[in-house]
Design goal:
CATH superfamily of the largest domain: Endonuclease Chain A
CATH topology of the largest domain: Endonuclease, Chain A
Distance between the termini: 45 Å
Order of helices and strands: HHEHHEEHEHEHEHEEEEH
Strand order of the largest sheet: 4-10-9-8-5-6-7
Number of domains: 2
Shape: elongated
Strand content: 15-25%
Helix content: 40-55%
Structural class: alpha+beta
Number of helices: 9
Oligomer: single chain
Length: about 240
């Protein structure tokens, strides 16, 4: 990820990212110096600097003979963004309450490498999940890139303290995962491959069911409380039946 991409995550557009990044590297500078270093026309630089001042990302040094600007520390910008995210999370139940109480399920289909990232992270944007449960598949014919994505997702679950309970086949492709279960907050019951050897994972959150074919890079998310509750009951019934 380059500097501009990182700044866009903080809410800057392309020109704001270029001006802020240039000013950050210069320490303090006039609009002329920023224009020369960034390649952006000076009138545009003035406009962008005012936008950045409104976002509290840039300061104008008072009493300077020339208009001199200085960039605020990126640490302050990240801290502000984190505080904003936490504030929004506090209002999430209220915002979710505004959604229509549909009885029909919402079904989302994902396909391809880029879609698989959205497939894994999407449900966590639509609800607060403390535990996932499910039936997890063998890793047959899964690409290296897809496995890297799976590891990133597992680290995300770990960072968010989201626990996982699952039923998994005793397959060689999963044994490395079993060695990391305790560190990642996973509790798994392992069953013989002759009993369960699916290549499709089914996991269940608070308000969604997700079916994932990692090898084929396809998946479906079903968002429906009644369906979620029914499949969670099925999982709990099977879970209790296993040692």
């Amino acid at each position: 990820m380059d500097t501009s991409s990182a700044l866009r995550i903080l809410g800057f557009n392309d020109k704001q990212a270029r001006v802020y990044g240039t000013l950050l590297s210069l320490g303090q500078a006039t609009a002329y110096a920023i224009s020369k270093a960034s390649g952006i026309k000076r009138p545009t630089v003035y406009v962008v600097l005012e936008e950045l001042r409104e976002q509290e990302a840039v300061l104008k040094i008072p009493y300077a003979k020339k208009q001199v600007y200085i960039a605020k520390s990126p640490e302050l910008l990240v801290a502000k963004a984190s505080a904003n995210i936490q504030s929004i999370k506090n209002y999430l139940p209220i915002l979710l309450g505004l959604m229509p109480k549909e009885r029909s399920p919402r079904v989302l289909f994902f396909e391809g490498q880029k879609d698989m990232h959205q497939l894994l992270w999407h449900p966590h944007q639509t609800g607060v999940h403390k535990e996932l449960v499910g039936f997890y598949a063998c890793n047959k014919n899964v690409s290296h890139q897809m496995m890297e994505l799976v590891h990133d997702y597992n680290r995300h679950l770990q960072s968010q303290h989201i626990r996982t309970r699952g039923i998994v086949p005793d397959h060689p492709s999963l044994r490395a995962f079993r060695q990391q279960d305790a560190a990642y907050g996973r509790t798994m019951k392992v069953v013989p491959v002759g009993v369960y050897n699916s290549t499709i994972s089914v996991d269940i959150g608070q308000n969604f069911v997700r079916l994932i074919d990692y090898g084929g890079q396809q998946g479906i998310v079903i968002e429906h409380l009644q369906i979620t509750d029914a499949l969670r009951q099925v999982f709990e019934m099977v879970w209790r039946s296993l040692k």
